[in-house]
Amino acid sequence: MATRERLVVVVLFDRIDLLDVTGPAEVFSLLQREMERPTGYRVVLAAESPDPVTTFAGVRVLPDVTFGELSGTAIDTLVVPGAVTVGEDREITARCDPAVVETVRLLAVHTRRVASVCVGAHILAAAGLLDGKRATTHWSTARQLAAEHPAVTVDADPIFIRDGSVWTGAGLSACLDLALALVADDFGAELASRVARQLVMFLRRPGGQSQFSVSVEPASATRRVDELRHHIAAHLAEPLTVADLAAYAHVTDRQITRVFKAELGMTPAAYVERARVEAARQRLETTDETLSRIAGTCGFGTVSTLTRSFRRTLNTTPSEYRERFRIG
Hints:
Largest sheet: 7 strands, mixed
């Protein structure tokens, strides 16, 4: 029986992130080592012209085909990476070339499934492919995506999200998790896990797993909130109730709640919990401290409270997290 071809097209354009291109291609290639029969995957890099494309890393990539040559071609998987601009204040903004957006929109018509990598979700959204869908992107541009495309339900926490035939991935390294999920969708979880072992990475982090950091919060607009955030980070073992924070900032409880919601998009209690989880996460990665000690130092009080917060925030337990991400 002949192997069905699975044409995978990776969209190229200037200043693209290199790992967005090579990561998924490597995953599809490594699968062949685990299979006796051909996978059918054929990965091609497509650009506007046959000229080399310069990535953000400065590495030049040579396209296999032009967009024009793919016109009307049946595509199995369309992979759409992203690109950003970095402002003088280090602010990151997703960049969408209208010509690339239109190309993606046209290619998607003949595609079985579309997958964006990192900030490539902005291109899918601009092409109308995320309207009415739930999607993720890199945490640094999630608010931009939500603001520019209100028809998209943006969830900045998961590593990847599947909504029908459209998949969106989070950060750069999450391109591997996304590609492994695509492989699992085609050939099953066992083969995808074998590829993960070749990559020496955790065996397919679940898509719902958090991007793991309270530092994803954007810089505050006011010095008062910046000072509050530093105060919280330095006093995690203390109660840090709404009343405590309001007293520190010399405002009322109602005012402090309103400020946090306006500038950070969450209540003071939610922010304190995420700050504590972040501190605990770092200790789990870098120390041999007991869970009891970490719970006390980070302000949870008990291991059971620490565990509940981890499940709620990161969709895992402290012990599971340490097993997966322990450094050294």
